[in-house]
Amino acid sequence: xxxxxxxxxxxxxxxxxxxxxxxxxxxxxxxxxxxxxxxxxxxxxxxxxxxxxxxxxxxxxxxxxxxxxxxxxxxxxxxxxxxxxxxxxxxxxxxxxxxxxxxxxxxxxxxxxxxxxxxxxxxxxxxxxxxxxxxxxxxxxxxxxxxxxxxxxxxxx
Length: 157
Hints:
Elements lengths: L1 H8 L7 H6 L1 H4 L3 H9 L18 H26 L3 H26 L3 H28 L3 H9 L2
Helix pairs in contact: 5-6, 6-7
């Protein structure tokens, strides 16, 4: 069983003295385990870049690239917001933070919610939450001090 786990995980199988510790019966796969292992689907890594030729679409690749671009944009946007606060920066932060949170929670839904009805409800809730978040941040930027000034006020406490 341990050799099968190592084989499935893509790790090298133990040789020599290590194999003697595991036992000779673990080195051979019984017919039942071989049939189950051959029929099982390959393990998908959810947060890795899509690989060409593996049934991926161009849209999925562009989406993955967009997610990374927004993450990198936020790395530059946060210090810029400190150095150059203003309405343009406030609205840029509102859009980037909402989009980043929407995509992140979308991955949580993809990974942990199962069943057609549950997925539809969760996605609907996610869109409502994202719309309310963006509208609330825009309202805060327009009618109050804005995101940059609010963070500066919190830091001055």
